[in-house]
Design a protein that fits this description.
Helix content: 10-25%
Shape: globular
Radius of gyration: 25 Å
Largest sheet: 6 strands, antiparallel
Strand order of the largest sheet: 10-9-8-7-4-13
Number of domains: 3
Length: about 425
């Protein structure tokens, strides 16, 4: 073999080895550190109304069902009940809900009896949970993967008196067969749906976020699962601060997820349902373009509740802004901020479109009538959700007359403050 041929073989071998090294999998183990998407220090909560237990019957919005067994040595008169949203137990007697009982609900030492398997037998779910420092953590196992779970932080409500009546009336109308107790005894909940992990990539800090937005206790590696999201970003994010703006830029958990980290693109290769690890590798794919502040909103037509079609560009007229109000009839935070949204509308500087998620035409129509909503409303579609990367409610997207997004915020008071300066 002559020297030239030998040199070519060595060169090809080295090139092959370098390619193998460059495509090497990078695996990160992720501890069970669950946080709220608005940060550990957030004061944003959802309300859990409590209902009086009568004749051992639990009633949700549409169904009444008889309890099979009460907790041992507990009398019905001592109990109230409530629900937690959870999609990880398809066998539950109540669709997408897990019921729980509360003993001594007026006491500081109230006990929670969680029907973890949703079978309405409260004797096969383990010991009750008691409040410590006015809060406790709830763990709901996924029925098909017991190693995976969804987490809630429950607390005691502190509903302002000026909001109590509206909130109670809202839930009374939604639960017509249930006897609701006074709002001062309600609970609050925060969904700890985000797994946060600080890691290093080539000796540089990165943060990995896995968001179980589908609320089933597992992280689904599936392009068609529109809920679950993964974020890998530079630096170490502070878990005490609001993470929602970062989570908006998340990718579906699949092989198309690509992240730009310190000048290089990395693709997601694998994870498991528990989210206990993720594997990435360098890729030639490009990161997707996300809608954010400064983005120009392209032409978008939506069908509003009355069946007509509205072009969003037609609402950006006469130098008016357009506010997209993403929420739901079920969203306590949305209802509490609604008076401020009406103040925004009264400025006559803004057109508004309400976008309702996880709702039906009937529930939205009833809400619009009851709350005297003056602007067009629509149901959320996959297209709209994808364009604006919505994963928190309420979310307010303010679009300027030049079609540029100028604000994406969770608080309507910030929108009002901005508009009042214009």
């Amino acid at each position: 073999m002559n020297k030239k041929a030998y040199f070519n073989i060595v060169t090809l071998f080295l090139f092959f080895c370098l390619n193998i090294l460059s495509a090497q999998d990078l695996k990160f183990n992720i501890p069970n550190n669950y946080v709220n998407q608005f940060g550990a220090k957030t004061d944003l909560v959802s309300f859990n109304p409590l209902f009086k237990l009568n004749n051992n019957v639990i009633a949700n919005k549409t169904e009444n069902k008889l309890i099979k067994r009460l907790p041992t040595h507990i009398q019905e008169a001592e109990l109230v009940y409530g629900f937690l949203f959870f999609k990880g137990n398809l066998a539950s007697e109540f669709d997408s809900e897990i019921p729980f009982l509360v003993k001594d609900y007026k006491s500081e030492k109230a006990e929670i009896y969680l029907d973890k398997n949703g079978n309405l037998d409260f004797t096969d779910d383990g010991s009750p949970i008691t409040f410590k420092n006015d809060e406790l953590i709830i763990t709901l196992e996924n029925e098909s993967n017991k190693a995976s779970a969804y987490h809630y932080k429950l607390g005691k409500s502190n509903i302002a008196s000026n909001n109590a009546s509206n909130l109670k009336n809202r839930f009374v109308s939604k639960y017509p067969s249930a006897e609701i107790v006074d709002t001062k005894f309600w609970l609050t909940n925060q969904r700890l749906s985000v797994k946060l992990s600080h890691q290093t990539l080539n000796n540089k800090p990165i943060t990995i976020l896995l968001n179980d937005a589908s609320s089933d206790g597992i992280y689904t590696f599936n392009t068609n699962d529109f809920g679950d999201r993964v974020v890998i970003t530079e630096g170490h994010l502070n878990s005490n601060k609001d993470l929602s703006s970062v989570l908006r830029l998340g990718e579906p958990i699949d092989n198309n997820a690509v992240f730009l980290l310190y000048g290089k693109e990395y693709g997601l290769k694998n994870t498991n349902q528990q989210g206990s690890f993720i594997t990435i590798e360098e890729t030639n794919l490009r990161t997707s373009i996300k809608t954010k502040v400064g983005s120009v909103v392209s032409e978008l037509k939506i069908e509003v509740l009355d069946g007509s079609t509205v072009d969003l560009n037609d609402l950006l007229v006469d130098e008016k802004f357009l506010l997209l109000d993403f929420g739901g009839t079920w969203c306590g935070g949305c209802i509490m901020q609604e008076p401020t949204v009406k103040e925004v509308f009264k400025t006559n500087k803004v057109n508004i479109v309400g976008v309702f998620d996880h709702d039906t035409k009937a529930s939205v129509a009833n809400y619009v009538k009851k709350h005297d909503i003056k602007w067009p409303v629509t149901l959320m579609t996959p297209e709209v959700k994808s364009i604006f990367s919505i994963n928190a409610y309420p979310t307010y997207v303010l679009i300027a007359p030049n079609r540029k997004i100028v604000m994406i915020d969770l608080k309507s008071e910030n929108i009002l403050e901005y508009i009042n300066k214009k």
